[in-house]
């Protein structure tokens, strides 16, 4: 009898391990699909190209990509990193981003202890909200890296996700401090009014106000601690790069480097990287 139990439990454990591996492969594939979507959105949104209805195409020759040319990670390898029609090289950054996105999804799911042993609904909902949040910050970061600009439509999407998360937390009663959430909502409204007012008066976007809105989105979705730690890390790294830049220039008086320091410090981009790394680290400790 004992042998039979031992056999069943061993068989059971093996089956669950296989199911977990399968689950994490699906999560990885999901991450790579999102990674592919981030690249598409970062390229199209600033150019005002439809991100949902327009079929994917080669930016050089306009060749409409077939289904098998759209498979994240794999199609890059099969196509030999170039367009099938015009042979233009596909930048490796798409491939790297898809793999990184897949790994980020796996890490977050692992930190939230998502597995086939016990499907904890609140952890699955948290995972879904983190994915919605990542879509916002990754696209904002990508556009900021390319153009040093915070895309407003993506920021509005981030505010919408934050409001949904606040409503969810209030309904579930995860935190009794409802005043904190009311304060966040009021701050969102105040910042949006200031931002709109600025844009009406100057017909320009204000990077600082938009960064503040982004920070508030981060606070709601990744906690105050993670956001403050991210800001601290980014500020220290900016301070260090500036110091190195000035030191280099003062030492090499004949060969001065002239860089636009604002271009060097893409705050939203740096903040996103710091935020995701610290968020994963914090989840590893608390979940
Ligand atoms: Zn092409």
What does this structure look like?
It contains ten helices and no strands. The protein is mainly α and 287 residues long. The chain has two domains: 119 residues, no CATH class; 138 residues, no CATH class. Helix 1 runs parallel beside helix 4, helix 4 runs antiparallel to helix 5 and helix 8 packs across helix 10. The two termini are 38 Å apart. The mean pLDDT is 88. It binds zinc ion. Zinc ion binds next to loops.
Distinct small-molecule ligands in the complex: zinc ion
Extended strand count: 0
What fraction of residues sit in β-strands?
under 5%
Which parts are unreliable, with pLDDT below 50 for 5 consecutive residues or more? none
Shape label: globular
Can you describe this structure in just a few lines?
The protein contains ten helices and no strands.
SSE blueprint and pairings:
Blueprint: H1 2-44, H2 74-78, H3 92-111, H4 121-147, H5 152-172, H6 178-202, H7 207-222, H8 224-251, H9 261-264, H10 267-286
Helix pairs in contact: 1-3, 1-4, 3-10, 4-5, 4-7, 4-10, 5-6, 5-7, 6-7, 7-8, 7-10, 8-10
This protein binds zinc ion (ZN).
Zinc ion (ZN) is lined by residues 58, 60-61, 63, 83, 85-86, 88.
Which labels suit this protein?
binds zinc ion, globular, mainly alpha, single chain
């Amino acid at each position: 009898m004992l042998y039979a139990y031992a056999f069943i439990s061993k068989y059971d454990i093996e089956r669950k391990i296989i199911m977990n591996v399968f689950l994490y492969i699906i999560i990885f594939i999901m991450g790579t699909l999102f990674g592919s979507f981030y690249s598409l959105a970062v390229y199209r949104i600033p150019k005002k190209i439809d991100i949902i209805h327009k079929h994917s195409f080669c930016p050089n020759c306009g060749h409409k990509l077939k289904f098998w040319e759209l498979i994240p990670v794999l199609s890059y390898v099969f196509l030999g990193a170039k367009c099938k029609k015009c042979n233009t090289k596909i930048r490796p950054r798409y491939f790297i981003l898809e793999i990184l996105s897949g790994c980020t999804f796996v890490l977050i799911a692992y930190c939230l202890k998502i597995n086939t042993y016990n499907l904890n609904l609140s952890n699955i909902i948290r995972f879904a909200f983190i994915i919605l949040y990542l879509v916002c910050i990754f696209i904002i970061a990508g556009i900021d890296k390319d153009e040093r600009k915070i895309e407003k439509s993506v920021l509005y999407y981030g505010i919408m996700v934050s409001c949904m998360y606040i409503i969810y937390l209030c309904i579930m009663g995860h935190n009794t401090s409802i005043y904190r959430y009311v304060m966040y909502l009021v701050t969102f409204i105040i910042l949006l009014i200031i931002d709109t007012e600025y844009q009406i008066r100057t017909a320009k976007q204000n990077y600082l106000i938009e960064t503040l809105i982004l920070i508030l989105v981060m606070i709601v979705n990744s906690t105050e601690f993670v956001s403050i730690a991210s800001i601290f890390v980014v500020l220290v790294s900016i301070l260090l790069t500036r110091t190195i830049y000035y030191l280099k220039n003062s030492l090499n008086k004949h060969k001065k480097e002239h860089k636009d320091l604002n271009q060097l410090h893409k705050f939203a981009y740096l903040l996103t990287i710091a935020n995701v790394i610290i968020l994963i680290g914090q989840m590893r400790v608390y979940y």
